[in-house]
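The instructor's notes for this session suggest beginning with a concrete chain rather than abstract definitions. Hand out the sequence below and ask the class to guess, before any prediction is shown, which regions might be ordered.
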Amino acid sequence: MSGACLSTVPLYRSYKPILDAILFAIHDCGFIARTALEDTGAGQTRIEKLRTIIEGSLFSIHDLSRVKLNKADPLARLNMRFECGLALGAKFFGGQKQRRKDLLVLEEEPYLSRQAMSDIAGQDAHAHENDPLKAIEHVRSFLARKAPSSDIPGHNYIKKRFKRFRAALPKMAQQKRLTVKELESFDYLPDLHRLMIEWQRKNNAAREI
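After discussion, reveal the predicted structure:
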């Protein structure tokens, strides 16, 4: 397993800014961000893709937000809980390498995940309160303890860089014949991810682990 970090999150348009911040923070801490959306081909089923990425990722971040039902979405979305369970299963029942896994659980509101899924009570979930910058704080704190190097930037530094990247994005998108609106879509997440990595490498991101 490499210094890859899997991120599993709610696929809601309103959540996209938080996902962008999480991916940015993972890379700025020197790790490699992985998501199940990075390959949309039909060669593997979604569960096979998840298995491959979970198996190859030493760490994972699972956001268990969006557990409340509403009129527009009356059915609970359980994908994030299922994916979190897969990661925990790999840690508990896998071989020696898999038992080294560790994960960060995020949530929208404090203690909300425990109410929706009491078995997770042993895992300390961290609330980002729908704030992308707060999500960066939690990701940095988690990964800084996992990095073999102590040269991990502080969360304020990463947040400032994230804001600079967002400000540079329109020009970068135009150069790639993309629009910012397109990059706000989950369908264009691989494109945004590539632009993010390109910007970070040009602007002295942390060394990949």
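Then share the key points. The chain has one domain: 2-151. DSSP finds eight helices and five strands in the chain.
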